[in-house]
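_Per-residue structure_
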Amino acid sequence: MPDEETLLRRVAKGDRAAFEQLYRRTAPWLAVRLRRRCADDQLVAEVMQDTYLAVWRAAGGFAGASVDGSAVGWLWTIAARRLVDAFRRRARESVPPLTAEPSSPAAEDEALSDVVGDEVGVALGMLAPELRAVLQAMVVDGLTVRETATLLGVPEGTVKTRARRARLAMREALS
């Protein structure tokens, strides 16, 4: 079974079967991740459609261009930016986005804690949710301050302040 990078290279050559396989493999987790950031199913469906259309059109541009260099990281970067764009469109239309409120630790939070190690994972777990959300958007998702502000529905200055507070809290917890 080919991995996602191989499928993307095949998609870049116009292979529809590879695109369908990539979609079937990645759409479920992508939808879950998007729903953690937006509770509006219609908006999530729109972002999913925009994302996969962009993947079809731009697959040739993938060259380890994501934060983690993987195809799924590249796909998530596209989806996260499409979600930010959708939030911006909504803001212009004066309809506030519905944001999802996590009721339990997300699998990606647990995975991040496992990847970075016990000490850092504990420090991340001790952060206030709003600080952790900023770190997740900027560090894990690779979004800019502006994109993070749009995604979280807060001013850019608030994002910068929260990012600084998160760094200080992490430094203190790890020293």
